[in-house]
Amino acid sequence: MKKSLIILIIFFPVFKSCKNPEPNMIESFEFAVYDNEPMFVDEYLYQNENKNGIKLSANQTEWYLIDWNGNGIYSEIGIDYYGVKSPFKRRPILSLLKKTNKINHNEVTYSIDNKTDFRELNKTVFEPKNDISYISDFIPIELSDGNTVNSDIFKDYNKTVIYYWATWCAPCVKKLEQVELNSNKLALQKVNFIPIYYGCSYGDVIKLNEKKGLTFNPIEVSNRSAISYQLTGLPETYVFDSNGKLIAEHFDVE
């Protein structure tokens, strides 16, 4: 009896840490891959590969562990990835797994580490430059001129669309032209459309406005808020209801 008890104490922790994830925890995602690394800019240039991931959650925050080499293990440091995604994104944005890793959710920073097999969150000091960031509700948007877009933008509107764009992004410009043509319709529907540029110059925005006859106010997002809103590519759309709850990440004008 004494020998059996000793064996149980020794092997139970090993069994627990090696336990495979439940089947309903596993999700499959498609990533653009180059040189065995995920790519999040100009993804159309690269081949796509499917990778399995485990979805974990705590404190209303969700994160993923991605089995990058397909061996069924999701926590290999320097091989596998961890990441986050806002509710309507098709796949998480990733970073290579280290012993300690940071996650930003609604501008609160958490850490996950190998001591808990990356399955527990610990709140830590806010790191605004952490790229593994996402939002699930509106957070104030810091602009490059020091001003802030606050929650008062929701007043008197059914929907508010935050549209991140750039002058060099052809789909972005097309969308702005559509919004301009349908401005009266959007006003009747109580839709507040706020374009915020990123990755281009104020001078280029003014030239575009004059060329296309656009009348919106040119405002630029700060680098800090660009990270919080996961601006890895453009255009990027966030649609909020009148209470500031994120309800979509796509917006059709017509």
Describe the structure concisely.
With 254 residues, this protein is α+β, with helices and mostly antiparallel strands. It contains five helices and 16 strands.
Structure description:
This protein is of the alpha+beta class and 254 residues long. It has five helices and 16 strands. The protein has helices at 2-18, 170-181, 183-188, 202-212, 223-228; strands spanning 26-34, 37-39, 47-58, 61-67, 81-84, 93-96, 100-105, 108-113, 122-123, 133-134, 141-142, 148-149, 159-165, 191-197, 236-241, 246-248. The longest helix has 17 residues, at 2-18.
Structural class designation: alpha+beta
Sheet with the most strands: spatial strand order: 2-1-3-4-5-6
Shape field: globular
Rg measurement, Å: 22 Å
Query: What is the helical fraction, as a range of percent?
Result: 10-25%
Give the DSSP E fraction (strand runs of 2 or more residues): 25-35%
Q: Main sheet?
A: 6 strands, antiparallel
Layout of helices and strands, plus pairs?
Blueprint: H1 2-18, E1 26-34, E2 37-39, E3 47-58, E4 61-67, E5 81-84, E6 93-96, E7 100-105, E8 108-113, E9 122-123, E10 133-134, E11 141-142, E12 148-149, E13 159-165, H2 170-181, H3 183-188, E14 191-197, H4 202-212, H5 223-228, E15 236-241, E16 246-248
Parallel strand pairs: 7-10, 13-14
Antiparallel strand pairs: 1-2, 1-3, 3-4, 4-5, 5-6, 7-8, 8-9, 11-12, 13-15, 15-16
